[in-house]
Amino acid sequence: MSQSRDLIRHLENNSLQLLESATAEVRASGLPSLQAISDDDLKVALYTALLKIIDTLRESASVPAEGNPDVRALFLDQNKSMMEIIDGQSAYTTGHTAAVVRHAVQIASRLGLSDAEIDDIEYAAWIHNIGLINQSQKLAMLPRALSQDELKQARNHTVVGADMVRPIEFLAHLVPIIRYHHHRFDGGNAPGELRGERLPLGARIIALADAYQAMLEPRAYRPAFNRDQALLEIDKGAGEQFDPKLVPLAHELS
Questions:
Q1: Which of 38, 89, 116, 220 could form a disulfide linkage to 143, CB 3.0–4.6 angstroms apart?
Q2: How far apart are CA 63 and CA 228, in angstroms?
Q3: Nearest 5°: phi and psi at 210?
Q4: Does 199 or 15 have the greater pLDDT score?
Q5: Distance between CA atoms of 60 and 92, rounded to whole angstroms?
Q6: Can you say whether the dihedral through the CA atoms of 7, 79, 134, 140 is positive or negative?
């Protein structure tokens, strides 16, 4: 118990130094996609995670220990808070991630997947947009449709997110889902890369859930679609943007 309190005190007293050190280490990692993130955005993300760790340690220090902490659950809890911040940067995307998670879990459940597979897809859905910590989130706020170059830049968040998650051992198996969740089923937006059923099933599910939810939300350049309009667009994209085997399940989403 005293060790936990000492650790909390150390983190609180040295948070700024730790933040500077962590930022420098991320920069030194050399991953090209992470270099695109501004220092301010990176520090906000790291500091949010640090504060959440301190809060969690403080809570655990006040109750009897019951085995090892669930690191996977702790990381997810931290990143839920981060995603709320990312989603909240725009009135158009507030609550977006939580809604995508609900849709993805509904689809995965109807496919008869195992509990472990559904848990992985749920986890990946929570963090699929973690790469939006970079400049691509600002593009989503433009009061018009994006140009092809801007669209490519915005979709770079899949690469950033994959690079952020890859070094975390217990999440490494989710990297392909995060990396490919914006890939079209027909490969039209990424020639030469994975397409069709070679794309991870989790990526195909999140692609459908993400697009469906995005259409239900207003944007600066268009009003929100109603459910029938969104489903019509989903149907049009069967076999092209979306896995045709998954499209009928969109009609069962609540």
A1: 220
A2: 50
A3: -65, -45
A4: 199
A5: 36
A6: negative
